[in-house]
Amino acid sequence: MNWEQARKMLHLSSLTRAASRGIHESTAPRPMPLKGVRAGAICIASGKGGTGKSVFTASIAARLSMTGRTLIVDADMGIGNAHILQGVTPDRSFVELVAGTAAPGEIVARCGPQLDLIAAGSGVSSMSELSPFELHRVAEAIEELEPDYRYLLVDSAAGVSNQTVMFAAAADLVVVVTTPTVTAMTDAYAFMKVLLRCRPTAQPLLVVNRAHDFEEARSVVRRMESVCQRFLSRAPRWIGWIPDDPAVSRAVNARAAIVAHDPESPAARALEHLSIMVLEELSRVHCRGLGHSLMRRVVYSPKLA
Question: Which terminus of the chain faces fewer neighbouring Cβ atoms within 10 Å, N or C?
């Protein structure tokens, strides 16, 4: 697939210009979901905070929403910030769902014509360790909502908690975002190690963020591949890199995705390419349904709730 074919696949040739002006095709009809077809679920993880997961998620979601309805699931429970890059302030979140004061449809916030978000809530410490009953309620809500979407993007929490790893293991694809720092690479390895213990068939995808150039990104990949191959007997598949770009900080401060705020910036162009790579990877897997898969992983009995 060459670049022009890829741009046509994502309709970037016409929509990128509109995104740069903040214009949405609000009059375009929404595609109806196909019955029996589950949304493709992509989890963006890192192991370490501050690697750019939310920036990656916001931009990939913006691009995927051009081809089908997309839902961002902020899984950083209690301290989520995915809503910031969408420029919205949701009235309700997973907090109200878990408390039983809101139904699944009431916690969905509109971010664009084909882009929605479920916020994780902020400043609620109890959300970081949900009980099996509460996590089951979250899974049920996602399963109820996902037939209306073509893509689900999980903006994961940092770390390797059971809750975080369960979301990743339930997704169809897991994209691990790291940076060239030793701590980020170490935590990315730790996350993949725990993920593969939970789901041995997973094939983690690797993105190197904030690299100064291709050679630095490639050096990170070589080190990650070497360590993973040695200790895990397998390595993540590298799908691309994002340059260190001051335009990203400006977009974050503007509460916007970089691909919409500054589409001609080096980081935005890299993220356009990565969105195509994610679509290609997703086309190779059988979509199992995030809510459905998550419920199967939650050890829960109604009699014990």
Answer: N
